[in-house]
Amino acid sequence: MTAAPPRLTAVTDGWTLTHRTLMHWARRPAQVVLGLLFPVMTVLMFGYLFGGAMLVPGGGDYREFLLPGMYAMTMVFGLETTFTGIATDAAKGITDRFRSLPMASSAVVTGRCAADMLHAALGLAVMIACGLAVGWHWHHGAGRALAAVALLLLLRFALLWAGIYLGLTATGPESVVAVQVLVWPLGFLSDIFAAPATMPGWLGAIAGWNPLSATVSAARELFGNPGWAEDTWPARHALPLAVAWPLLITAVFLPLSVRRYRRLGR
Q1: Full-model pTM
Q2: What is the mean pLDDT of each run of 10 residues along the chain (266 residues)?
Q3: Alpha-carbon distance 16 to 101, whole Å?
């Protein structure tokens, strides 16, 4: 019998592990549903509890201003899901068991990547449905709206590799607290809720150059939603930065993840 080509084997093994993750989620639907509802609750809280006190640049609708930022926050918070899944498998010895099987060495990483991207796409679809329900709309056509969605998923893809690497280096899933310490400042130290110009100079510079700020600003522009309209270099070049930052993050963490996986147990 002729052996399957290495590339076909890698794809098949990767899909097998993707299917494994999806089946785990199917057996625990409550956990998945709660994860999807958390950002929806955040939208309702900020949009209705605090929205009346918020001033939108140019006098636009606050929820139209808020939603692109919340879409991006959902992509960022997905890093915790990736980290927990990878760290749990590593702590239980499941990753080592996979390494001992006659399967493609890339399957564990690519399988998790594919499953988490499917989860991210579902979460983004739920958020967009929530946005439409509360009065958010895109105004520059379906093509530009799809481009904004692609930028959001590109950010998730980049942060996914950061989550894989951190999960492989963690001592266990309980280390997710350390990841939260990184994720929450990344989310709030951006232009989602406040203009960088209103912050102290050094803090505003960090917020302006935050990869999340680039994606949010570019998404607002593509959706046709109001933004801060700041005259800074990162603000004027948000669209190319929204592509460059995720590519840079991926270029750093993808090889680190592969190297770390190969060195497990040594």
Answers
A1: 0.86
A2: 52 76 78 77 74 66 86 88 83 74 71 86 90 88 95 95 87 72 82 84 90 94 88 91 96 89 69
A3: 13
